[in-house]
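Q: Structure tokens for this one, please.
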Amino acid sequence: MTRPTPETLAHTARRARATADPAGTVDPAAARAAATPAVPAVRTAAPAQVSGASSLVRSLEALGVDVVFGIPGGAILPAYDPLYDSTVRHILVRHEQGAGHAATGYAQATGKVGVCIATSGPGATNLVTPIADAYMDSVAMVAITGQVASPLIGTDGFQEADIQGITLPITKHNFLVQTAEEIPQVLAEAFHLASTGRPGPVLVDIPKDVLQASTTFSWPPTLDLPGYRPTLHPHGKQIREAARLMAAARRPVLYVGGGVLKAGATDGLRRLAELTGIPVVTTLMALGAFPDSHQQHLGMPGMHGTVAAVYGLQKADLIVALGARFDDRVTGKLDSFAPDAAVVHADIDPAEIGKNRHVDVPIVGDAKHVIDELIAAVTAERSAGRTADLGDWWTQLDDLRTRYPLGYDEPVDGTLSPQYVIKRLGEIVGSDAIFVAGVGQHQMWASQFISYEKPHTWLNSGGLGTMGYAVPAAMGAKVGKPDTVVWAVDGDGCFQMTNQELATCALEGIPVKIAVINNGNLGMVRQWQTLFYNERYSNTELGTHKHRIPDFVKLAEALGCVGLRCESAADVDKTIAAAMEINDAPVVIDFVVGKDAMVWPMVAAGTSNDEIMFARGVRPVFDEDDI
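A: Here is the predicted structure, written as tokens:
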């Protein structure tokens, strides 16, 4: 069995390097107190003689797994025989990419570890994209793959692929199981690694002969993870210094990333924000971590963020980053980002601190513990009479919010506005639903025009930007939250990549609802061609308008779903209402919208956030002396 030594755990900058301490930010006592790896044992099991495949399935049962997404094939086939009698529900997807994204959607919606299964060779390589997607967005997922029999490894055997080597840069860790006796321990370690510290995908590759071998199964196993000790509690000195800066700042911003959601720290975030009065921005991965409707929420920062959020960060004198990573879509041109801001950066992954932006107060720790301890430290500062006066700062930000609110122009050609469709969808469906987006213009409009009031109600592919994510991720979310309404907002391009999983939904009784924003084009690419390539529309028209190929209503019906179409603003509300009335089958709505709508505001790639455009040809006007 391949052991996760400190060296292998650190093979890339994103490995779980919990023992790293780049700036003396880890409290030694807190590090020693970090939890010893523990098996999340649902039950114990007396030793029993079984096959390796049965040991695998029993391990999944003992770990509390209720569902896996997968497709059988030759190398993994031995595992499917005991799975037939298992309490673990197996959902037969139509493509391994769908299995991976479904596991991701399940994990994002429930907070549990998502599990997908594939066979060797092409089955395993079809998981590469969803594994990379889960890695970029820090999603707890375990991917189990079959491998050719041990004697064939390295011989270019039929359907052999070195999936361990292929996924080395995009997994938190991966294993090649060498004996059947190791299976329970490997599975327990995989789930522990995936779900603790900074979450991420873990791959378990099992040769066919190992699955067929006889072994003794017992539970729980003992974990052996040398060097893996995530730091949960922050260093007290760093917390006190952060609180001191927050009390002294005049233009502070809380920059909130997806790590706050993963840590279950949203209640604490709200207490911290209201205690300090500091403006809050939430990244694309953090929507719902702080209510959109809250007066202190400036919106989403970044390439398509609000003017107030972008300029709030840009002109801040203090940025308190919580579970965020200063990615390029937020910072714009890095050397011009927030030039006057001191930075407090709190993250459970020490590799992220200082990676992109110089940090004045680095804090390694779990966001929930960091925020709770910041609340205590800020309260102490306030008790000592040290409180920031943010009146002028809020006057300036409120002025920007008033002058540059999110909005859109109705299409001049009379076509249906995609922004209107998405806005009404959010208003009619409500804030209790889960919204899942593909990637592109519709994703940005869904982030802008739907109000996210609660955590874990917005799922999307943020870091990798994976077209085809929405439909299978919505399927996984609905499986994990069967009593919650789940809508996928997809584009006509994204939808055609993975819509075959609607057949899975129809047959498995997973009534997701899909809003296809059909503008006949690869919309975001067309927008860039309009703005930067002199309207030379090279290979972006999809034919879903001109030729209605495919006809999404007929396609939906062929896949066992209810198909609806809406082409006018007058029909939007009643079409959404009709979809909401259908709860015994998946529903697809083909919203035929105009092709020329654009996403605004916009910071062009590679430019400074100072160059944000409110609309085409419209730059925000603000008084530098005031800001």
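A few notes: Residues 70 and 443 are 27 Å apart (CA to CA). Residues 1-36 have pLDDT under 50 and may be disordered.
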